[in-house]
Specification:
alpha/beta, Rossmann fold, five-stranded parallel beta sheet, 8 helices, globular
Amino acid sequence: MPEPTPGKFIVFEGLDGCGKSTQVELLRRRIATLCRPAGKRKVFATREPSDSVPGLICRGISKNIIHVRHETETLLFAADRYEHVVSEILPQLRAGNHVLCDRFYLSNFAYQSSETDFGVLLHYNQAAMKLAAPDLTVFIDVSPEECERRRSAERAAEEKYENVERAKVYRAQYIRAIEFLQSKMNAVLFVDGAGDQEQIFEDLWIELSQRVFTKEDYR
């Protein structure tokens, strides 16, 4: 089991275009506002792939700039996660700061399991999982068609994982992974990501206030 830490760790998951980054930023602002007058705690927002060496390679893979064998790709994403936890996430949590992460190990299961068994993926991720466990994972569920519409409005270049048909597969693999990891992870909160982003956040904030955060977490 990961060590208890004074900081809270919240992970956001979902398909590209589901609104993860927007919700991470809204939550970062809300927690920062509450922490600033109350005490010394801070909020640290991060993402995967991270800025580690394997993470930078993973970004190149995602953008179809770097091409490697599938097994190498899967190992690199897991390696980036370990570096991310050791170098950034765990030090922040130990310092009492709250960490918000855009993607974590569920993404590895969703996006790389087409050719790699879940059991193998679990083995690759165990080193990171033993060090840090999200207090809550928020899965923002938006249809692949709506995600594609949002992506096309924001950027022209298609990344490796972006495509409606592929996204349908990834969503199914997300659900399978959540079921597979049910006994090995804390709660997963499913959020309907369609609609107004501000209202989605306010509904999410109510859930987080009931499930994760207390007044002590802002001091």
